[in-house]
Amino acid sequence: MTLLGLSITILLLFIPLISLRLLALIRSSNARPIGRPPGTPTRLLIVLGSGGHTAEMFSLLHHLDTSKYTHRSYVVSSGDDFSASKATEFERGLYDLARSKASAEKKALKQQGKEAHGRTKEEMYGSYDIEVVPRARKIFQSIWTTPFSSMQCLIACFRILMSTSRTSEVHMGYPDLIISNGPATAVIVILASMILRFLGLPGTTGKMRTIYVESWARVRRLSLSGKILLRIVDRFLVQWERLAKELNGKAEYIGVLVAH
């Protein structure tokens, strides 16, 4: 058998296997999430973009419950100091809120004559880290060099998804949930998560479920990221009923999610 013939034979053998694996992934995406006991550490991965994407994301997360999402990983592109500073500012607010809530609980227990046990900062508020990935494509970058920079970004995304937190004392492994609202980096992050789930690596079962929230500014048409991810993510949310109708049931409309 020639080398070409052998290559074709191997390809024909792999196509059914790949198709079956993709079908299994689609079925698992449509299944209900695996239940977890209350208090189980949960890792949330949030993809930030520059400017408007970041502002919308933090508006979307303004009621985030740190007791449910005990660790937050923020992914920002290199050079995006705005998003990194906004993540730090947002986390300061979460910490102040958690500390105020813990103080009120302690005071209430004391009034009831009950002993209030002290909690560590992580037990009270959780933890967070900010992860930086190379830009998939810079402004005015040549289309010929974009595949190389995109590959660098993809490799960095693998590292983030597969590594545990640098700031948490609890080992959590792969993110439980990935949420994005449209920056280009999100496409690479979600592609990396799909590849890891496709490979069926240990620890990926029930992990890295994805939610995409289309920008509030998208009233009639999807963004480019939205078009790419529409049939890939586990849940695709839009903020305008008109857009949901245009997509013929391919997206969910549950009202405006961004607080103004």
Features:
alpha/beta; 260 residues; seven-stranded parallel sheet; Rossmann fold
Structural write-up:
It is built from eight helices and seven strands, in the order αβαβααβαβαβαβαβ. The chain has 260 residues and is α/β, with parallel strands linked by helices. It has a domain of 172 residues: Glycogen Phosphorylase B (Rossmann fold, 3-Layer(aba) Sandwich). It has a seven-stranded parallel beta sheet with strand order 3-2-1-4-5-6-7, sandwiched between helices. α5 packs across α6. The radius of gyration is 21 Å and the shape is globular. The N terminus is likely disordered.
Provide the fold topology.
Blueprint: H1 3-30, E1 43-47, H2 52-60, E2 71-77, H3 81-111, H4 121-125, E3 127-133, H5 146-162, E4 177-180, H6 184-199, E5 209-213, H7 224-229, E6 235-238, H8 241-246, E7 252-253
Parallel strand pairs: 1-2, 1-4, 2-3, 4-5, 5-6, 6-7
Q: What letter string, H or E per element, gives the SSE order?
A: HEHEHHEHEHEHEHE
First-to-last CA distance: 66 Å
Helices, by number, come to 8
Task: Quote the beta fraction.
Answer: 5-15%
CATH topology-level name of the domain at 41-84 and 126-253: Rossmann fold
Major β-sheet strand ordering: 3-2-1-4-5-6-7
Summary?
The protein is an alpha/beta fold and 260 residues long. Helices cover 45% and strands 13% of the residues. The longest helix has 31 residues, at 81-111.
